Amino acid sequence: MTRWWTTFFAAAALVATLFLASCTPEADYNRGYDDGSVVGYNSLCHPGTSNIIAGNWDNENYSNGYADGDADGREECREEQRQR
Q1: Cα 12–chain centre separation
Q2: In whole angstroms, how far apart are CA 79 and each of 20, 44, 73, 74?
Q3: Which of 67, 44, 48 is nearest to 57 (CA)?
Q4: Could you tell me if residue 37 is left (phi over 0), alpha (psi between -120 and 50 degrees) or otherwise beta?
Q5: Are the CB atoms for 44 and 74 separated by under 8 Å?
Q6: Is 55 left (phi over 0), alpha (psi -120 to 50) or beta?
Q7: Do residues 73 and 38 make contact, with C-beta atoms less than 8 angstroms apart?
Q8: Which of 10, 22, 35, 68 is the most buried (most CB within 10 A)?
Q9: Per-residue pLDDT at 67 exceeds 50
Q10: Closest Cα partner for 49 from 57, 40, 58?
Q11: Which residues have C-beta within 8 Å of that of residue 34, sequence separation ≥ 6?
């Protein structure tokens, strides 16, 4: 029975570690960048499209990533429009 508990706690510690690792500043920035990129692209190429985003505006890394992604998403749409 001791082995079962040891395995359980080891697995729980691994899951907690992986969860906490996903809360890094880089992960927050990337999540914001992805959200901003979609919104920026859709705002020009597919106006009126609904976008579900995390919207974690209190997180500086998320907000910075969102702003960068929004600019890049808009530029990607403009580039596609120029190629048409």
Answers
A1: 25
A2: 38, 11, 10, 9
A3: 67
A4: alpha
A5: yes
A6: left
A7: yes
A8: 35
A9: yes
A10: 40
A11: 65, 69
**Residue 34 structure tokens:** 């992805």
Structure tokens at 13: 């510690």
Q: What angle do CA 26, 27, 33 make, to 5 degrees?
A: 90
Looking at residue 10, what is its pLDDT? 58
27-45 per-residue burial string, b: 16 or more CB within 10 A, e: under 16:
ebbebbbbbbbbbbbbbee
The DSSP-derived string for the chain is: -HHHHHHHHHHHHHHHHHHHHTTSHHHHHHHHHHHHHHHHHHHHHSTT--------TT-HHHHHHHHHHHHHHHHHHHHHHHH-
